[in-house]
Amino acid sequence: MKHVVSSSEVPHLWAHQSQDSARNGNDTLYFRGATIYSYGSHFPIASFVETPDQSRVIYFTTETYSVTTARHISMVRHSLPGYLPVFNVPLDQGFYRKEPAYFAGTYRDRIKEASENVARSRNQNLREYRYETLCELVKEANRYCETFKLSETFMVPTDFDELKKELSRIAAEKRSEEKARQAETLRKNSEAIEQWCKGLRSELPWNIETVYLRIEGDEMVTSKGARVPLSHAVALLETIEHCIETRTPYKRNGHTIRIGFYTVDSIDTDGNLRAGCHSILWSQISRIAPMVRSIIPIADSRLVKLMMRSNENAEPTTSNL
Questions:
Q1: CA–CA separation, 276 vs 273, rounded Å?
Q2: 198 & 132 share domain
Q3: Cα dihedral angle (161, 166, 167, 172), rounded to 10 degrees?
Q4: Is 237 found in the same domain as 225?
Q5: Which residue has the higher pLDDT, 171 or 230?
Q6: Where does the pLDDT of residue 297 fall: very low under 50, low under 70, confident under 90, or very high at 90 and above?
């Protein structure tokens, strides 16, 4: 009997349960008794579990961890004996101490999430695929409850339009709450914001999401710490105003607008700009625009023309800011 075997053989030895343990050469895939692990006891992939009527089923993890672990998961799944029921549940280091009711609860949560995904689907093919996945999940959940003598029964929702309306209402409430929260954050930090804009402090509290701008010498500085030449800022201002005046949004799609070391991702028709992690509102851009122009009244014409040409050649898009 060999206990050190190839990685591909470990799952098959586990599936047949013909010996108590085996591992591959570097201990990254192994089993002990009923459970097979990837990289350690913190990540059980699958385990044989006894049911109330003393038959056996397999718990198979729904978790993922890394590319290598994903490969181990695939190898184990392909080794599963076809005659045993398989229940896909979230496994952790202490899964064997958890009661069947706990895993029934995880099915309940996953069915709720899957139902919401169906309701959110805009593409018909995606909606149908998600609906079929949901139906299979409900069937599996009910088989689990029946196998472990649980009284709970799961149903596939029927009114997805109502669910979609409810999700939209919840999302709107969350947006409103977030807007109120950010407004309160700005109110509490108004003095710090004013000091930063005047150059009296080097940074702002981490929870201030609004990006502020100020001028330091010949550079434009953001409250997130990015710096760009003022001449580039003036050129970009010309492009932003062009988007507003012509009601033509810009979105990076092969045509590049650069400002300093950074690339602009999008500008909407209200003048709001996105570049990487920076989402800068027109209210902040327009606030500092007169100061910028008073220092550099005429931008580098070549740069302005290049940026304007990029914007004009870009296909019209709907901004997702």
A1: 10
A2: no
A3: 130
A4: yes
A5: 230
A6: low
Using the structure block, give the residue that is written with the tokens 């507003």: 244
More confidently predicted of 18 and 100: 100
Answer yes or no: is pLDDT of 299 > 90. Answer: no
Statement to judge: residues 200 and 291 lie in one domain: yes
Domain of residue 223: give its range.
190-313
Distance of CA 119 to the CA centre of its chain: 19
Q: How far apart are CA 128 and CA 19, in angstroms?
A: 44
pLDDT band at residue 316 under the 50/70/90 scheme: very low
Q: pTM for the complete prediction?
A: 0.57
Is residue 259, in this structure, part of any structural domain at all? yes
What's residue 231's pLDDT?
Answer: 86
* φ/ψ (deg, to 5) at 55: -90, 175
Q: Name the maximum alpha-carbon separation found in the chain.
A: 84
Q: Which of 69, 97, 125 is the last residue of a domain?
A: 97
DSSP class of 265: -
Burial level of 10, CB count in 10 A (0-12/13-18/19+)? buried
Q: The tokens 């009527």 sit on which residue?
A: 53
Residues 111, 154: contact at Cβ < 8 Å?
yes
Please give the Cα distance from 38 to 17 (Å, whole number): 17
Token pair for 257 = 């607008």
